[in-house]
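Risk mitigation, structural track. In case the binding assays with BIS(adenosine)-5'-pentaphosphate fail to produce interpretable data, a predicted complex structure has been prepared as a fallback.
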Amino acid sequence: MRLVLLGAPGSGKGTQAQRLQARRGVPQVSTGDLLREAVAAGSELGRAAKAVMDAGQLVDDRTMLGIIRERLAKPDAKRGFILDGFPRTLVQADGLAELLVAIGQPLDAVVMLDIDPEVLLARLAGRRSCRRCGRVFHVVSNPPAAQDRCVDGGPHDLFQRPDDNEATVRERLAVYRERTQPLIDYYARKGLLRRIDADGSLDEVDDRLERAIA
Ligand code: AP5
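Fallback model:
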């Protein structure tokens, strides 16, 4: 399975990618997570990306295409991938198309997660991620269960992303509308686009996603 999840910040791309990965054994490839790992490691890429991410802007296309090329060359991506947060510009989409032709791994589908902007704000305000295992939670709709343990057997170490403050979220939404929304038509023209309603319980959205890619 080779899939792109498309949608605004907070639409549930990361959550659905993690759940799909658990069900199907196909790796989630999140460019946001890869950049946050680089920031945490203090690498040259991380230092350059941090200011861009904190401002709610996009890291440049050339850098992002390099990251994806490297990630898709890893052995686990041979059995497929779920792209979460990539591509998000037309240049990235064209670069991805070329790369996938070169490695003989065409996309099966692009699923657009449709959601009302008001719901997005509430989701991002309550989002918490685990510093150790990377799982995504929500203080109201998706808190860790009492018996849920992190990879080391202890409780999850939850934190709020620095780009989830209100001003940065508004900027990320504006950047999404301007730079990423054109991909909806781009993939519709290629016959790859499926749209699902991303407002609903996690299980309901799982079902819609499974039906869209069946
Ligand atoms: P990235 O990490 O990709 O952020 P994003 O696209 O803004 O998306 P989010 O992670 O905010 O939201 P999501 O759709 O994954 O929602 P989630 O599942 O967490 O990128 C961050 C930054 O990195 C960018 O701003 C940019 O600077 C840079 N970057 C990354 N990729 C790049 C690229 N390709 N090019 C250039 N720059 C790039 O869900 C949100 C919350 O809602 C969670 O709390 C979750 O528990 C909850 N939730 C989810 N589903 C449901 C549901 N059905 N019901 C109730 N709650 C739900």
